[in-house]
Amino acid sequence: MNQLVIVGAGPAGLSAAIAAAKNGVNVTVIDEFMKPGGRLLGQLHEESNGIWWNGVDEATNLFNEAIEFHIQFQFETSVHHVKKHSNHWDIQTDKGMFKSQALLVATGAAEHSIPLPGWTLPGVMSIGAAQVMANVHHVKPGHHGIIIGINVLSIAIARELKLAGVQLESIVLPSCNLLNKEASQPGVVFQKLAKLAHLAPSPLFKMGGFLTNKLSFLEKLVVRSFPKNGLKAWGIPIQIRRAVIEILGEEKVEGVKVADITPSGVIMKGTEKIIDVDFVCIAGGLYPLTELIGVTACPFKFIPSLGGHVPVHNEQMQTPVEKLYVAGNITGIESAKVAKAQGKVAGLSVAHDLHYLQDHNAIDDAVQHVKKMRDHALIQFHPDINKGRNELNGASITN
Amino acid sequence: MASLRIKEHPILTVDQHVPEIQFEFNGKIYTAREGDTIASALLLNGIRTLRVHEETASPRGIYCNIGHCFECRVTVNETAEKRACLTPLEDGMVIHSGQRLPTPFKKGEE
Amino acid sequence: MNEKDIIICRCEEVSYEDIVHLTELYQCSSREIKLRTRAAMGYCGGRTCRNLVDQIVSEIKNEPPADNIPLTYRPPVRPIPFRLFGGE
Prior knowledge:
The structure holds three protein chains of three kinds.
Chain A (H helix, E strand, L loop, with lengths): L1 E6 L3 H12 L4 E4 L13 E3 L5 E3 H14 L3 E3 L4 E6 L4 E5 L2 E10 L3 E3 L12 E3 H9 L8 E5 L3 H12 L3 E8 L11 H9 L8 H6 L7 H9 L6 E3 L2 E13 L6 E6 L12 E4 L2 E4 L3 E3 L2 H4 L5 E4 L4 E4 L12 E3 L9 H18 L8 H15 L8 H14 L1
Parallel strand pairs in A: 1-2, 1-8, 2-5, 8-21, 10-17, 11-12, 11-17, 12-14
Antiparallel strand pairs in A: 3-4, 6-7, 7-8, 9-18, 13-14, 14-15, 15-16, 19-20
Helix pairs in contact in A: 1-2, 1-9, 3-4, 9-10
Chain B lengths: L19 E6 L2 E6 L4 H7 L6 E2 L6 E2 L12 E4 L2 E5 L10 E3 L14
Parallel strand pairs in B: 1-7
Antiparallel strand pairs in B: 1-2, 3-4, 5-6, 5-7
Chain C lengths: L6 E3 L4 E2 H11 L3 H8 L12 H12 L27
Antiparallel strand pairs in C: 1-2
């Protein structure tokens, strides 16, 4: 029997595996993908000091370290069920059953979609799909594309696609319906963009950085006077006053129909036009992928700032279910660095609970490190992350 | 039209000397490289439609590229329902796209 | 824009219009919508559209999301061949 099985070989899973194995725990890591790294593999961005954060290198380093500690890896293996018994877990996969004393679910996040007419056509893909295609497989998602959805993830990946030599028409909004009330509102989107001012070197973006929620009249002014053709970040027009109405094509994507929208997101009749593209990326944001926790007895909490439903857990990454742990984006959408720091906490907690941990300050130190990483994160996915985290810690005490 | 293969990149290391491999898709022979997935190999060869919807025959391709959506499922060497995005391409692989299925119990069908 | 043309559940091809219409008509839960339309019940297990169905229902009924997951997860969370259940 394994002492610890980890589902997910991303930043959280890998660093948890290392932390646990360093303390003598015997660890197996399972992942559906053919190589380690999870979402690290696509990531590529410039830090404020000008140094590039290269997720591929990061993943390789973590994997090499894991190998040194004799951690077992099962790639191309899908877990379809986990079941708690009195003193072990059954982990059912398409490659057979694994048994383990402790289980860490580090399955990361999945992408929200933005349904619109034509989105099932071949050539329409999630923004993460395009990222993996370009940065992991070194194949461009297409020759000339457009991105629907303006948010931190889409702007970061747009830049990555540009670096890979992909032509991008622009980043635009989705047209408004019940599913994207906020993401289709130029005003709301602008407020969020303003908080990213440090990422994009454009004068109006910088000006946006001075805005606060209270200065809504200034925001309206800026949104009203926002140029229809957008502001460019790294040469890519970001058009908060334009929306895609429909994706066009017979057998595959051939173009999109766009229209100008009012500051409140209403389509302005007569402004419709067709743009030729051969691929479309949909950027709806991320949500914690909790399905494996959903088949256990672990309770959930709905916390919008963390990305939706998240499993109840404490700062030590323990859930209320005995010997069930979580780490990384399954606990809330944050940067890879936070996920990695959380993974270490989870690995140490497992080592502690299996009576292997010698250094009893190690967990506290690792918990502090998570907070430090959170505070220093270049990209804050949500301004209220700390509030969300506190709410979750409160819930873990009452459970 | 120019290849979709990324040959140079300002930050990432792109290996130029990866061995080529051949595979078959719906009866035709194509070339890609070791390390490609079925999904990246087909995209590289300009193939976007990986299957059609079983009932309506609407064309489908890669959507999530990380195994969540199951839109890219294909038959590989006679094993059905393999996700193209999670399956490493191998030399000599025989791949078939999913087809429309008969729906004899549904009203309104011929 | 024709709301009939917006597909919500890609696996079962259920439209935005149908989900909105049935939710308004029956004022029902997302689970009932799932059972009535097969949305979120297809091959992918609802990974792509379960949140969309939940969100439409929550908007129409004006009910904020609760802590409990509305469309519960059931094993297997990935499609598996019958032989893995022990049969032939």
